[in-house]
Amino acid sequence: MKQENDYNPLALDVPHEVKRLREALNKAGYDTPHIAALLRFDVGDARLPAYRAGSKELAFAMHYAKGDAPLNTLVQLFLLGATVNLEAARVAFAPSTPEALLSMGLLEERDGGIATSFQITPLEHLLLLADPHWGELKPKHVVSAGAPSIALAQATIRRKSRSTLDVGAGCGIQAFFAAAHSDQVVGVDRNPRAVNVAAFNAQLNGFDHVEFLAGDLYAPVRDRRFDLIVANPPYVISPESRFIYRDSGLKGDEIAQRVIGDGAPLLEEGGYLQLTCEWAHLAGTDWRDRMAKWFGGTGCDACVLRFTTVAPDVQAEMWLRSDPEVKAEEVPERFRDWLAYHRAEGIEAVSDGIITLRKRSTGPNWIRFDDAPKRIGQCGPSMERAFAAVDFLTATHQDETFLEARLRLAPDVRWEQRLAPTPEGWDVRHSQLYISAGLAYRGDANRQGLSLAELCNGERTVRQVLESLADPNGPPLNIPGVLAVTRQLVEQGFLLPEKEGQI
Ligand SMILES: C[S@@+](CC[C@H](N)C(=O)[O-])C[C@H]1O[C@@H](n2cnc3c(N)ncnc32)[C@H](O)[C@@H]1O
Question: pTM for the complete prediction?
Answer without folding.
Answer: 0.93
